Amino acid sequence: MARNRVLGKGLSALIQDADLALGPVAGREVRDIPVDELIYNPRQPRKHFPEEKLEELAASLKDVGMLQPVLVRALRPDEARKAAVDGGPRPRYMVIAGERRVRAARLAGMPTVPALTCSFEETEAMRVALLENIQRENLGPIEEASAYQGLLDAYGATQEELAEMLGKNRSSIANSLRLLTLEEEIRQLVEDATLSRGHAKALLAVPAGQERLRLARLCRSRGLSVREVERRAQGAAAARQRARRPRAGARSSAGAAGEGATPEIRALCARAETHFGSPVAIERDARGRGRICVTYYNDGDLSRLLAMMGVVVDLD
Fold it and tell me: Which of 51, 56, 99, 191 is catalytic?
């Protein structure tokens, strides 16, 4: 069954009944709103805004302006009356996403900020639609992560603001977004459901590059379980730590990432790991002597490796 593709389409891909992308929204455009007419969302989960960071952002705004609009909603009359300060202008909008930039704009002395305005009902409809669409059964892990990233990019929201909008934990959104740091080949395997979300999460524990790609390809060819991938990732990490510890008389360390290893040793490590499907360490001293270490994870894995080496493992 074909998936509903939403990669790179932001809000318009997640909300089927409303055009909430930047630009026209129900006949309206992004427009400049006086900062004096804005109030902050009391439900904003981020309560601390470091002054130094705000000053840095304010300096940037003075140089290049605010390139990404903030998202605001119109205040109801009762909200506006309650938020009004004696002698000052009555606020008209509440900041939904982009509070840090509004604070920096005030610090920079900017009279207005570009904003996309939604009504209270539209904001609530957006939140509900996002929840319904993101939690759809046919929305894959990479699609979900891309949808989150599209929202962050389109509205300049923080992960905390997005979590508040969706009623999710910030950590779950952060973990989802981490999947986008995987190599394109691995992301494609997850999109195709060849690898699960659990596999992808386990692969994140492996350094980026060829080591992670080799393990992902091994998952595909041998159908490794998530637990097996986790064990291999832990074993590879332990092997790297051992390789970093200096040994008497040794002049090169293990694996393709071994510090001081020659290009030839690195290439041989890579080929050996591809052949055995396990981390391989090659150590060699100044006289050309050394050892080859192949990591295994359980008795079955040991038997597999020995059999590949031509060792008869049946002791009966």
Answer: 99
